[in-house]
Here is the input.
Amino acid sequence: MMKSKNNEYTQWGERRQSRMFVRGLHLDVPLLIGIIMLSAIGLVILYSASGQNDAIISRQLMRLAIAFTVMLVVAQIPPHHIQLWAPWAFGAGLLLLAAVLLIGDEGKGAQRWLDLGFFRFQPSEVMKLAVPIMVAWYFADNPAPPLLKHILIACALIIVPVLLIAKQPDLGTSLLIASSGIFVLLLSGIRWKHVSGFILLIATSTPLLWLNLHEYQKARVMTFLNPENDPLGAGYHIIQSKIAIGSGGIYGKGWLNGSQSHLEFLPERTTDFIFSVFSEEFGFIGIFCLLLLYLFIVVRGLYIATQAQSTFTRLLAGSLILTFFVYTFVNIGMVSGLLPVVGLPLPLISYGGTSMVTLMAGFGILMSIHTHRRLLSN
Amino acid sequence: MPTRLRIKDHIRESRTFNERAAIALALVIVMIFVILARLIYLQIISHDHFTTLAEDNRVSIVPTPPTRGLIYDRNGIILAQNLPSFSLEIVPERAHDVDATISELAKIIEITDDQIKGFTKQLQQKSAFRSIPLRTHLNDVEVARIAANRHRFPGVEIEARLVRDYPYSHLTAHVIGYVGRININELQKVDPSNYSATHHIGKLGVEKFYEDTLHGTVGFKNIETNVVGRTIRTLGQTAPLPGNNLHLTLDINLQQTANKALGNNRGAVIAIDPRNGEVLAMVSKPSYDPNPFVVGIDSKSYRALQEDIDKPLFNRALKGQYPPGSTLKPLIGLAGLENGTIKTHSSLFCPGWFSLKGDDHKYRDWKKFGHGTTSLEKAIIESCDVFFYDLSLNLGIDAMSDYLSYFGLGKKTNIDLPGELSGILPSSHWKRQKKGLPWYTGETLISGIGQGYNLTTPLQLASATATLASRGLYSRPHIVKSFGATANSEPRLATIEQEDRRHIASNQNWEYMVNSMVKVVHSIRGTARTISEGIPFKIAGKTGTAQVFGIKQDEKYVKEDVAERLRDHALFIAFAPEDKPEIAIAVIVENGGSGGSVAAPVAREIIDEYMASKTRS
Here is the structure.
């Protein structure tokens, strides 16, 4: 997929004709196909995981419709507009985060929601996009490789919202946002010596971070390290999830036939643990296909990033798609017992609204970046 | 501010980016491989392990109780049945907090302290994951209330169970007994796996004696349960084998007649078919309602039953040991004839008292001025004591004892009911062994009229009467006629154990004695002549009165009761028809006074009903 520039231009020319219509809508067809396929799989497995609950399916369909609309709208926005608004969006996001800490609603023991009267939303979702946009904006005009000073400023841009979100506390989201910023840094051509220094810094700050974790977050990590210690308490989720995945075997138990899922042994089976339901019912073969689909989307995203024509769009596209993958990896890792349970949904498959909208907005940006190139090059 | 001018090199930046993107992609692929490796480990390598865990999660084996066999009377009338009833049960392991659950439940339906106490008691004895009933006999409203709130109570189930029911209640309590919750001692005596689903076990009577027959064999169900243990569906099952039905020898109509005939008296009646030992009626009064015992009687009612001065829980028919009094005379008379001590024509002058040589103690006859010249026949008809003082003196205690033992006195009849007592048939040997004292001649005299150490249970007396009626053909009394059957097997008759003891008396002597007993009822001087009125066949009988030997010092009697409770026990034995007896009866009315006027009419009513039912059918 790493084609030379010359090749790319001719190929682009050939494809132009056939994609006249979708280009007018600023959609990227391969990405769109991947997303639709994932969403469809998500609906199928959600139907099973929800215990064949039509109400949940119709609600999910509604959310998908909203999310696709958002993607379509975002795809129309030219990337340089996004670049222009970056500082404002970031600033507004920070204010909202601060507001959440001051006046936010509590849900499930954490302050994440902001009630605007007519609807509630999580400002941290805004930051999922605002942080990579801001960091990419910051590096857009700086020649690569960035100087240490710039790196430190970028780090500050990342760390302030991350700490605000971690304070809510929402460890999963804050880690995701941190990684989205870090991806921009890494992709910007930061020197390897800086990278290694960075890793060293993280290694030394980890104990400090541990001390600042909430009890339930510590418990999650401890549970992850040894779930069998507390099989009926904190370890229950992971053990039941591993049983679901493991008992699925190579071919799975078949759609709607997962005993772990349908007999309610599996917790959070429509949201965070939906991958376990999928594994139980479709087995290793099903997962293999699902991972191929995720890989396809990631490859397409990275391809879009390499084809982007400005530093800003390049960094942003790369960061967004890699964050998408991290999302996927963390979710699968946690339900299969590789990573601690941090409470992240499986992108495009888990039941849930806000994060899906953000995700699709991200895809909208990717599509916008890809489909607005001609205007830029002209 | 940059110290030196840095110029953006777009081509180089792009190349750097592409390099980094390639590295990122490589990392993505590596991570995907990590996931795949993890899944290969979980889904392929450890697949069996996790499948087992999933099955353990999902499937549990639940024993299903067999249906307890029903109990019928000899005519197929049901005496013990199983009625469906809803009960509220808790599996403590699945309820988060049992105490809180119970107190929450008490807000919805009525739960008494006694029920909670009973529950707690069972909680301490139960095996893991077994449900414990908290309330039984829920009504529809209660069932609906719990069902509507079910989500609030994990581990709480409404079970439709069959609850043992005794439609004749008091009437059959002493025969059939009842089932009650199994306690830990009983659980140790039975096969625990066969009883794994059984909550009740026979505690008394037929229910206890035939526990193995009635119980059946446990079945098993593989059920799929969800995380809180609710049954989702049944995957497969081995059906339980229901217990055997029992048909008793008891005739519930006759039982009713006997019960009515006894009236409000305390006492016992037993009717036996002398041809085969079938117990046709067995009444012990007062009685009790066995039904509350099935679900667990509350402590107050139980205490009331236990402390009742009339002892309703006491089965007089099997455990009541009474002096047989004059009802023993026909047997002693036979002993005298067979031993050659007396002849049928020998006679004695009865002045109203008897004394031993060299002893001025007067052993009195019940008739103050005596019976005059008395033969054995007259001694039976008028129940002359002096005749039997003399006879027993001549026989001696040991010969008498030996002979009486042919009629089963002094040992258990081995009826198929639990708890029977053996009574006492005294002999010199017995006295030496039990009391370490020599036998005194005076004791022989009072033994000769069925007093003294002599004690018999009503059942023994009835059995002895049956042996007499059949002229020596002894049949072990039994209460179960046949083991009835399940849907596809024929009823199996209980074996009748008989022993031919006709040799213990000559034909002539048997008939002489039976004839004398007929005259007890049918002659003008007979002690039971009042019951002979308007009877188309002949009854042979013998009255008896047993002295109540004082009252224990520590027993507190209500003043008005004292006189009543000091009265003699009234006894009567009878059989009919005299030539081919079909029914032999022993009646004991505690403190009834006279056998002839109180006990004999009871026997007459039973015999009438028996004969009437024969003509009816």
